[in-house]
Amino acid sequence: MADLLAVPLKKSSDVDIVKPLKNIIQSTYNTGDNSEDHSDAIEELARLRVNAIWKVFEKSSLEVIYSYYDQLTSLATKVPPQELQIPFKWKDAFDRGSIFGGRMSLTVASLAYERVCVLFNIAALQSALAAQQPLDTEDSLKLAAKLLQVYKRVFSFFKCQLI
Questions:
Q1: Which DSSP string corresponds to 76-94?
Q2: Can you tell me the distance from the alpha carbon of 114 to that of 89, in angstroms, rounded to the nearest whole number?
Q3: What is the spatial distance between Cα 154 and Cα 121, in angstroms, rounded to a whole number?
Q4: DSSP bridge partners of 148
Q5: What is the mean pLDDT of the segment spanning 44-63?
Q6: Fewer CB within 10 Å, N- or C-terminus of the chain?
């Protein structure tokens, strides 16, 4: 049986999300009557990002990256997107370098950009895990098919957004 192909993961750079989030939450939500400290939650989100972006990618990584994506989605509903200016930098997954050196990267100060890149990595990780399946038993074949179905849905979503 033929081997499956995997989509490469996008790589990100370290980003300080703690200070901008503290500033936006303090200016938006903390008033004289309501001055909660959200430092622990923001620090936890920063740790979750580090684990989702830099952790060795294996099956258990799916939970971490899904959790980070869920937190980003939740954050997007609570923080005005035009006010959150965190420069997220991601490298192109398909550019393997050029004569000008390095991989192409794009920096965008948008939570939506971060979410799209994380969603791309969810699909890429699904394809990598599917490609690692031995495909010689019915169970491993079913698992590979399930992983590829999620991968297909994510990239179909991207396609629909571009049209």
A1: HHHS-TTT----EEEE-SS
A2: 8
A3: 10
A4: none
A5: 85
A6: C
In angstroms, the CA 103 to CA 92 distance is 7
d(CA 63, CA 87): 25
How buried is 93 (Cβ within 10 angstroms: 0-12 exposed, 13-18 middle, 19+ buried)?
middle
**Residue listed under structure tokens 């993961």:** 9
- The predicted model gives 89-101 an average pLDDT of 72
Residue 106's H or E segment, with its range, is strand 105-108
Identity of the residue numbered 77: T
At which residue do the structure tokens 């930098």 appear? Answer: 89
Over residues 15-33, the pLDDT tens digits come to 999 999 998 888 877 666 6
> Average pLDDT for residues 53-75, to the nearest whole number?
86
Those residues whose C-beta lies under 8 Å from the C-beta of residue 101, and which sit 6 or more positions away, are none
Q: Which two tokens stand for residue 73?
A: 């989605």
